Amino acid sequence: MRNVVVNEKWNGKKVSDVLFANFDGLTKNTLYKAFRKKDIRINNQKIKEDVAVHTGEVITVYIIDDLLFEQRTIAKIFEDDNILVVDKPANLEVVGENSLTSLLEKEYSFISPCHRLDRNTTGLVLFAKNADALTILLAKFKNHEIEKHYLAKVYGIPAKPLNTTQKLTAYLFKDKKKAMVYISDVPKKGYMKIETSYTVLEKNTAQNCSILDVELHTGKTHQIRAHLAHIGFPIIGDGKYGNNEVNKLFGCKTQELCSYKLKFAFHTDAGMLNYLKGKEVVMPSSSI
Among the options 50, 80, 118, 175, which is catalytic? Predict the structure, then answer.
């Protein structure tokens, strides 16, 4: 059994639309069979399939989890006694219910993510396998001693020559109500300083697009997506900060952004994790 509390986003929508949006493994056949068996209820009342929902209502679903959630196999890229690096697929949160972390918790007695990726950003996520490793790695991220590199396919072609790096500085404001961030070139009240570097790896003049290696120096919400869009190079497939016409042209429904490399660039003592100094973990197939 699962419960879904209707938020303002879904107010007035059909109950079936809400359920398909919340359960990625749910099929029409399974859902309508549940309706026929009266296994879908709102505020504990039996309903029909075309009912509209309203903010605050509780939808109860009497369907087993195996039919509600997509069954995923998580690829392990690197693992030792202290850390685990996995390849996160799209459409999966790093933390929360039915997340990357909850999937791994079925196998490990202790597993904790050291950073996060957006739901539809794919690629490497670093986990600590014990409390001591977690403390060290969180400190290293805070001190910018772990490099995070991403591949981004963007619309437009930067003027910079291939294999040259451009470092960007701007200011970011997070609007929690709208789940959006905004970028400013100058300091403003409530805005946090951000730094992003990119290196042009490929240019495709025929399609007016480029492949960038992007490095985060600060790890703020939606930083890469919003920062690149702000300078005129939106990530292809990004429905929030990108260009919908461009996304349709390329046939992309999720952002072409992949965390493909982590480097343990320690310059201070890492205690039990000193053996990782200088190590790079790279996706076996680094392309988007």
Answer: 118
